[in-house]
Predict the 3D structure of the following.
Amino acid sequence: MNTYITMNYVILAVLFTFLITEAMSSLSIMYDRKSLPSVKKYFDPVWGVIGTFAVFFVVNTEVLYPSVFPSIDSMYVFPILLATFLFIARNVFLVFSEYVWKDSKISQLLLARTYSIASFAILLVLIIIFLSLITGLGTNSALTSFSISAFVSNYYSLGFIVGLLLIVFGLAFPFFRLEKFKGLSPLMTVIGLALFIISMSALGMIVNYVTYIIAVAIAFTSLLYFLTGKSRREPIFVLIFLSVLSINILNYGRIFGTRSLYSFLNNSAVSSASLAVTIVGGLLLTAMLIFFLYMYKRPDAGMDYSNRYTDSSFEETKIANLYIMPNSNKENGKEHKKGKNKQR
Amino acid sequence: MVNLVIFDAGLMGYSLAVHILLVTMGMTLPIIMSIAEYFSIKYQSKMYDVMAKRLANALIIFFAVGTASGVVVAIELFVLWPKFIAVLGQVGILPLYMEVFAFFTEAVLLGIYIYFWNRFRNRIRHWILSVFISIGAVMSGVFITMINAFMNTPNGFNIQYYLSTGKIIGVNPLAVLNTPTTWIEIGHVVGSTIFAGSAFLLAYFAYKLLKTEGIQREFYKKSAKIAAVIVIISIVLTVIIGIQSITSLMVYQPEKFAALEMNFVSGPHVPEVIGGLLINNKTIDAINIPGLMSFLATYNFNGVIAANDSLAAYSPTTWPPVSVVHNTFDVMVGTGILIAFIMVIFLMLWIINTRGIKQRLSSNVTIGKILSKKIFSDPFDNPLVLKILIAVGALSAFLLEDGWVTDEVGRQPWIIYNVMTVSAAANTSPTVVPIGIAMILFYIAVIPLTIFFVMKVLGKRDLNKELGGNA
């Protein structure tokens, strides 16, 4: 195995893990409005990191295989720009939903659902690109154009995407502890896994015992939640990461179906320098993410500094009402008019 | 039929122009936020604490939109200029890669800073995060500027061999971190970006000072003072480094220098050309100040300007649009000097009104009489000065954009100076047109919408109540 290619695969696996959990957030908000507080509690602190990982992967790929970019650019220019466009919409609606004022005419839920649709569409576009890159589906032999109609005319490509989305929906239940019809969780997960694996095999991607072990573990997670109502996010996170990584490792070095990634590798000088930067930057990033996780798990200290201020004796100001999610801002506005806010 | 090279260049330029405005806020807000939080701890001041929190709210909104915009620019760079990226990837990509980690520092720590604010038992530790967020934001700018410096003065590979064979050999990926213009360009870009961002915030605070009273006014006065200090420091540094960067242009990009100066003359006592147009390769309607260019370049009115610092030394086919870049350059220099002059006067008024100084000066009857005039009153309480500060804020955004236009258009027709032309690097697939138009339309909405949203978010929260006054 090549160090640089493996490193790129690991970054891709982390990115897709984040993207899939984001898609779970999207599906949860669409499926059950009551999940909004739970989704936001997970998603609010991490959305910036997810976006940064997307940039990380793109730049790392550019560093490792610069000569592949003219082909990728000419073939996937439309889906890439579309994903970028959706990314802007995602960020804008996300932050607007977070900070929208209470008596706004546009409800927070509506804004959250809008960014959810954008996030979901981003994942769809990226999966299409990813699948096409590995299998060569939809591309012409000269690697100059990509046809979406040629891509979908192979029904297994649709099976791959639908299967993945069903798995994502099924896992969203234990990830956000959704209660509404939770029997759907194992059902959707198992159907999704079957569809996903059959499609992978039919598309010429390698499937072996590793794939089956991970699939059983994913199905078991869903089933366990259905039976016991208990779940933890960490194992789901690890399972998604291993799934994406295993697909890459099993199809190691393949690009556009039959080409080898090795032929696109950058010169050794840039590759070596980038490895050094990755190690140093990766250590820094790992340290920051550990600190992030530590703070995420840490309870609110409820520190009240107001009695220390020399220029005021008033109560402390909160940063934002991040986790107070009224069902509807219009409703909240009415409460305000009726003076019910005092009762809260 | 759309000329796709011009379309690509226009789309890229437009996206960058919008992105730069967001970057100015993204780079400046954490600095002012960090200073505010430090003061809140040092002086145990609620007012500074509220300021830090409000700026953090504004920052996260600008960060979200700025990140999206940054991704757009990065993707456009890859999609619109594939051949440029292929060369950059094999030689000078390292700063772009390092920028990702600076970006991570900002993104991860900003998440902790804002969303886990109340989980810190030690305020100093929380404040330290803001310092690293500021460093992350500035370093992102530093690394991206390194790429721009590489485009202006490429190094790190065998250029002659590449020009004759199209193949890249002799790569030194670390050389791109230190091109001949890198550090001067970084100083100028970071300085001018922080200047523009702080001037814009100062304009906002000045506007609020005109509109508010009581405790709110006190709040905006403190905010304005922090912003004003940063504006003064950054404009002075930007002007000084700007002069250095002109000298560096003369040496390393002489053709660009000649175009910016619209200069056709070499030898001693060369005049400075101000304004004017180039029509049929002849300068018209320009003001010539004898010997001034010689003086600015050599500190001697009879100093010699080298032959390669004149447009006459180059074929017109490689000239950038001379009339455009010459005038944007003159406007940039003129506006920069005007703002620096205004801020120096502002600083003097501020110093005069500092506790004790005015009293001491007023002990002299004549001086006391002069200082009692309204124009010498506290600049933060003087409506005329506040209105001028609002104008400076608007001018600063214009100045920043104008500077970037000068730099980028001045390098035309090259995307990598003397190595690769813009037309050779462009993606001429017609697919870019519809989605490009959609992006332009989207961007038109993004900036006003973001500013409106930030204003609304801050405006909807009751500042009086937050500060401890009556709601």
